[in-house]
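Bench notes, afternoon.
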Amino acid sequence: MDFQLEHAYDADPNDVLAMLTNSEFLRARLAATGALDYQVVECAQTTDGGYRIVTERTVQADIPGFAKKVFKPTNSMRQVEDWQADADAAPTAAWTIEAKGVPVRTSGTIRLQRVPNGTVQHIAGTIKVSVPLIGGRLERFVFDQARQTIETEHRFGEEWLAKQE
């Protein structure tokens, strides 16, 4: 299943990128999403001027009956973001999320686009669940959970940026 989401920020793309690559922000954002356990494994500038962000979190979900044989109510995930360093282009990142012990693969891109009143964050992704017959329903379930988390992260980011002013 492919998806695209957009979220606006009332801040310059450089300020949004600085927020998204700040380990203090990352820890606070993970807490704000209700993660049961979390850590920022890596948050560092790369030798080419980009950034590598690696986080791990354990989340709890209300699993529908059709998904209980595949998903546990508590799942551990590892997220990796590799931000590109190009001063002339919009900041972009490739990302992956791996759920431990679950046949789900999620990956995509993030792009921060400058607009007249700030920034639009474009998130594009693909969710693939390798389970015959119910894979499509499971992908929709994963997307619904991910969308809720991304919306919570966005609201938290807006509040974070407002406090920085």
